[in-house]
Write a structure and sequence with these properties.
The structure holds two protein chains of two kinds. Chain A is mainly α. Helix content of chain A is about 50%, strand content about 0%. The chains are: A mainly alpha, B alpha/beta.
Chain lengths: ~160, ~525
């Protein structure tokens, strides 16, 4: 099920690792405007691999990266990570169109790791904490909105 | 192989098994419950960690094939557009459910008489009403009395969940169109109740409630049942129900977590494994006395599988909504619940109003629906969506059709080598029309509430939360599996109490009805034990 972790701690080979980081940056690029890294950031990419190592996800992710590299090789005769930015975008969008299941897996893994990174969470104005144990405040709301419905006659259907 | 004999063996510690165990505890019989999963540890629930959204896609995923835990069994779902959502552990599916806890309507028990489709139930709303009340008391239900869509029940309810900002914009939408809405009856305690602490709006109800405010059966019924003397054995997976020469159930063979094969003898066997697990177990329990599977002389075990096909509709608003804080289900609308044939379909649906989405889910949703792009523009689009969404789902009544079924997969097996189930399911034309109607009405409501953008999806692929109909109840042994009080027609000491015994599905979440039925069956058993007619 899960891939055995080699002694050096890497679950992907070097080509796969660079491909993952390049693809993650295409999906969620760095932003100067918000002062946040792209999803290809080393720490985020490591989290992606860690999360992928569940069930058959890692194998599917590796297959997706291989497909992406094959597509890059087919068009530009080199691996995805070696392409220029505009070339990467084109190949990645083709990959998304032609391999929707693989692209969705990549999206899911990338976003579930990106949107819990401290730098990203902070930029969204959220506290760096899990929901438990503090929880959150939700306003009770305007219960006068229920008044028109309260005035309505019962309308459930008799059972015959 | 070790053997022992007990009075009652309950298989499955989920919603119905827990309710049955608690109810029977007062008899002081020797009752054992076997559960294939483990005891839940709320301190280990995802909401206690920063990776809580990611864990909802792995060890707390709703689909057992995605989750893939040792305690799960695989399901072949290739022939179904709707995939199963369940959980295997003490509390069963209630560990992950949203806690929406409505009752059925009186009309839901009379579908054939009123609408000429499906079948009537052999019991009615009034028979179940006291058991609904008992179940709601045991669980702790928040809500507001006086919903005009229901008959008066005068049930004691805890204060409702907060409406919040999501409730405000949606209530405005419903009111603008003159449509019904009402605060949901929800199995989430809004103040301390029965030794449990009230809701603190963790917003992660669907991955187990670390606070214990959500009424999952492991925190409602089981502590009481165990104090009453019921023995709960976890990591015990039943391979088959055994029978004697007379065709009566004699107990079960099961496998422990460390792989030991065991056998337990019982005078009464109660099956509570849900609408997939129950037919799987019965079909795996073949014998010369029951060659087509236990209690299957009608051939209906596994047939008439019903889900509730779900449509999901969400809107984006200029103003901020609640985001992900707070319980998921806050309101419901039953404007389109009862049959109106001018709509182009029979029966109806509930609109269940949801709050907002946490960051990862916002990103997934935005990407899937083309609202958030890859690359340039991703961050601006994300920020426009995050904390500015709310919406609803349409929970559509599914009618029973025999071709929708659970069978035993010829190849697939669980980790103990027990043959796994296969589901075959097709969405009916009636359901498709109902789903589209739900999308159209919900879109109107969201726009009337101020949504600037609305997007939708149906059916929700991983929305097979409600598993019903595969061992239906009825008076005719040729047209049903169990009788009107849950006893198998073919086997007079075998009872089935989960969603399998539903005749029709109604258009609301089934857990309150599943548990009310379990309490009703338990009472029927106790009455017949008292006058020695249980096996007549």
């Amino acid at each position: 099920m899960t891939r055995e972790t080699p002694a050096d701690g890497h679950l992907l080979n070097e080509t796969e690792w660079h491909t993952l980081r390049a693809l993650a940056d295409v999906i969620v690029p760095p932003s100067e405007k918000y002062g946040i890294p792209g999803a290809g950031d080393e720490a985020i990419a490591k989290t992606i691999i860690k999360d992928a190592n569940y069930g058959d996800k890692l194998a599917r992710l590796v297959a997706a990266l291989d497909t992406l590299n094959a597509m890059a090789q087919g068009v530009h005769s080199t691996v995805f990570a070696m392409l220029r930015e505009d070339q990467r975008e084109f190949v990645a969008l083709t990959f998304r169109e032609e391999q929707p299941a693989a692209a969705t897996l990549a999206e899911q893994l990338v976003t579930q790791c990106y949107y819990r990174d401290d730098r990203v969470v902070t930029s969204l104005g959220m506290e760096l904490r899990p929901p438990m144990p503090e929880g959150y405040k939700v306003e009770d709301g305007d219960w006068s909105l229920l008044e028109p419905v309260r005035r309505r006659d019962p309308f459930h259907r008799p059972a015959g | 192989m070790s053997q022992e004999t007990v009075d009652v063996l309950i298989i499955g510690a989920g919603a119905s098994g827990a309710a049955m165990a608690w109810s029977l505890a007062e008899t002081k019989m020797h009752i054992v419950c076997l559960e294939q999963g483990g005891l839940m540890n709320p301190l280990a629930y995802p909401s206690t960690g920063r990776d809580w959204e990611a864990r909802a896609q792995s060890d707390f995923a709703t689909n057992p094939n995605v989750r893939g835990l040792r305690t799960d069994y695989p399901i072949n779902e290739d022939d179904s557009p709707i995939k199963v959502a369940n959980f295997n552990g003490v509390g069963g599916g209630t560990v992950l459910y949203a806690g929406h806890f409505p009752r059925f309507h009186p009309s839901d028990f009379r579908v054939k008489s009123l609408d000429g489709v499906a079948d009537d139930w052999p019991i009615d709303y009034n028979q179940l009403a006291p058991y609904y009340a008992e179940n709601e008391k045991m669980t702790g239900v928040a809500g507001v009395n006086g919903d005009p869509a229901y008959p008066s029940d005068n049930a004691p309810r805890l204060p409702p969940l907060p409406l919040g900002e999501s409730g405000k914009v949606l209530a405005k939408g419903f009111n603008a169109l003159g449509y019904h809405w009402w605060p949901s009856d929800t199995a989430i305690i809004t103040e301390d109740y029965d030794g449990r602490a009230g809701c603190i709006n963790l917003g992660a109800c669907g991955a187990g409630c670390a606070q214990g405010a959500k009424g999952s059966a492991d925190v409602t019924y089981w502590p009481h049942a165990q104090r009453g003397g019921v023995e709960l054995r976890t990591r015990c997976r039943v391979r088959e129900i055994t029978v004697g020469a007379d065709g009566m159930a004699t107990g079960a063979r099961y496998v422990t977590g460390d792989g030991q094969e065991r056998e337990i003898k019982a005078h009464v066997v109660v099956v509570a494994c849900n609408g997939i697990g129950t037919p799987r177990l019965l079909l795996n329990s073949k014998s010369p006395q029951h060659p087509d599977g236990l209690a299957n002389s009608s051939g209906l075990v596994g047939k008439n599988l019903m889900f509730h096909p779900y449509a999901w509709i969400q809107g984006m608003f200029e103003e901020a909504t609640d985001g992900f804080a707070g319980a998921h289900k806050l309101m419901r609308s039953q404007e389109f619940y009862e049959t109106d044939e001018s709509r182009g379909f029979v029966r109806g649906y509930t609109l269940e109003i949801q709050r907002g989405m946490p960051p990862v889910r916002t990103a997934h949703t935005g990407l899937r629906h083309g609202r958030i792009p890859w690359g340039e523009g991703h961050h601006d689009a994300f920020r426009k969506m995050f904390g500015h969404c709310t919406g609803m789902v349409a929970v559509c009544e599914d009618l029973p059709e025999e071709h929708n079924r659970v069978t035993i997969d010829p190849v697939l097996k669980d980790a103990d080598g027990i043959p796994a189930p296969k589901i075959s399911y097709t969405l009916s034309e009636n359901s498709k029309r109902m789903l589209q109607h739900g999308v159209d009405r919900a879109t109107e409501i969201l726009k009337a509430g101020g949504a600037t953008d609305v997007y939708s999806e149906w059916p929700i692929p991983y929305g097979g939360w409600h598993l019903m109909g595969t061992a239906r109840m009825g008076r005719d042994p040729e047209r049903s599996v169990v009788n009107e009080w849950g006893r198998a027609h073919d086997c007079r000491n075998l009872f089935i109490i989960d969603g399998s015994i539903f005749v029709t599905s109604a258009g609301v979440n089934p857990t309150n009805t599943i548990q009310a039925l379990a309490l009703y069956v338990a009472d029927q058993m106790k009455q017949r034990l008292a006058n020695a007619t249980l096996f007549d």
